[in-house]
Amino acid sequence: MVNYRTNLFHQADVEVSFEVPSLEGAEALDPALANDAQKLCSLRGADVEGGVGPFGLWVLASSKLEEKTAVFFQVFKAARNINSTKPVVLMCSDPTTSSLNPNLYKPTFAGFVDTDIAKGKISLRSLIDRSVIESFGAGGRTCILSRVYPTLALGKNAHLHVFNNGKADIKVSQLTAWEMKKPALMNGA
After folding, report:
1. Global pTM value
2. DSSP annotation of 157
3. Which of 41, 69, 99, 131 can pair with 92 through a Cys bridge, CB separation 3.0 to 4.6 Å?
4. pLDDT tens, 6-21?
């Protein structure tokens, strides 16, 4: 796990590239979920160990990870009812552990990424602006926007982590994070 700490009071921009050396451990995709990324994400979540993934970022994370929002990938073997043998890549934003406030609606958001993961690489870019997390998988082929309301992971107490909860080794080949400052002037005012 890589820990990058930044003051996320205004905005952060994070780019990470993952290398996936082997897809041998990828689990078979349940044919019943082959067209329902949302349901697959809610069932599999970031904390469920898989073959290849879940791997990605925990953003707006508290120091002891009591609060964290996962933005991640998981790779599956194609379901039998799909005509392609190309591996299926799920991208998910999982806010179920994003806040200690029990009264919040915290749905997962997901999509399948149209990319050839067999080439061994995939990128993730996340823009974090207070409570908004906008993520782009594989150069923007899949985009997810979500809103979270942490109680601990605010301002200087917000952290960023890279994680892998899969059995397969995943390499972080690049990680760049920028803290964006508040503009001095906006719209000429």
Report:
1. 0.90
2. G
3. 41
4. 444 458 999 999 999 9
